[in-house]
Amino acid sequence: RKEVEQDPGPFNVPEGATVAFNCTYSNSASQSFFWYRQDCRKEPKLLMSVYSSGNEDGRFTAQLNRASQYISLLIRDSKLSDSATYLCVVNRNNAGNMLTFGGGTRLMVKP
Amino acid sequence: NAGVTQTPKFRILKIGQSMTLQCTQDMNHNYMYWYRQDPGMGLKLIYYSVGAGITDKGEVPNGYNVSRSTTEDFPLRLELAAPSQTSVYFCASIRGGAPEAFFGQGTRLTVV
């Protein structure tokens, strides 16, 4: 079983739609959680951190459920510019401070 | 402040050749990483370093070597290139205690 699992998609949605991505992680020792965005043929960039209390940044809302080892990302009022791959990332905050990446979920927002 | 810089951006190698992928960061980050990303897949950790002089293996280290003689530089060496090493390679760095990883623009390597 992969340590971080995501539905690869693609999710094809019209502009203005609300879309939700899910992610599960297998290592209960994971301490920190993130969503990264990766545009085609580009490097990943941090979208937002994910906290147990949930956090919101504009149209983006991230949630963490430690008991279920589940992370979500909700995008409201999708824009064409949201088209990208969204990577779920966990960090055990161990000595190496290593990030473990999910395979990514591809989003395509259509006019 | 250039962030994380990788060179080259593209390279074609023949089977059995060797090369070094360069990575340098100017943010004084202690933690540095090399990942590879195969088409349609997530990133897999090859090697990492928690500071100058300290390196360790990640998930997929076979066929690669690294060194970390300075805080800034973390080169990745491929010996005896194989077609299975065709991939996009990303170097990243993190400041200890901070959540965000900064990535270089990647090196697209093809082994033929």
Please describe the topology of this protein.
The complex is a heterodimer of chains A (111) and B (112).
Chain A: E1 4-6, E2 11-14, E3 19-25, E4 32-38, E5 45-50, E6 55-57, E7 60-65, E8 70-75, E9 84-91, E10 99-101, E11 105-110
Parallel strand pairs in A: 2-11
Antiparallel strand pairs in A: 1-3, 3-8, 4-5, 4-9, 6-7, 7-8, 9-10, 9-11
Chain B: E1 4-7, E2 10-13, E3 19-25, E4 31-37, E5 43-51, E6 54-57, E7 64-66, E8 76-78, E9 87-94, E10 101-103, E11 107-111
Give the DSSP E fraction of chain B (strand runs of 2 or more residues): over 45%
Strand content of chain A is: over 45%
The shape of chain A is: globular
For the termini of chain A, the CA-CA separation is 37 Å
Q: What's the number of helices of chain A?
A: 0
Radius of gyration of chain A: 14 Å
> Could you describe the largest sheet of chain A, including whether it forms a barrel?
6 strands, mixed
Order of helices and strands of chain B: EEEEEEEEEEE
The total of beta strands of chain B comes to 11
Helix percent of chain B reads under 10%
Main sheet overview of chain B: 7 strands, mixed
Explain this structure.
The complex is a heterodimer of chains A (111) and B (112). With 111 residues, chain A is mainly beta. Helices cover 0% and strands 53% of the residues of chain A. In chain A, strands 2, 4, 5, 9, 10 and 11 form a 6-stranded mixed β-sheet that branches. In chain A, strands 1-3-8-7-6 form a 5-stranded antiparallel β-sheet, with no helix packed on it. With 112 residues, chain B is mainly beta. In chain B, 0% of the residues lie in helices and 51% in strands. Chain B has strands at residues 4-7, 10-13, 19-25, 31-37, 43-51, 54-57, 64-66, 76-78, 87-94, 101-103, 107-111. In chain B, the strands form 2 sheets. In chain B, strands 2, 4, 5, 6, 9, 10 and 11 form a 7-stranded mixed β-sheet that branches. In chain B, strands 1-3-8-7 form a 4-stranded antiparallel β-sheet, with no helix packed on it. In chain B, strand 4 (31-37) and strand 5 form a beta hairpin.
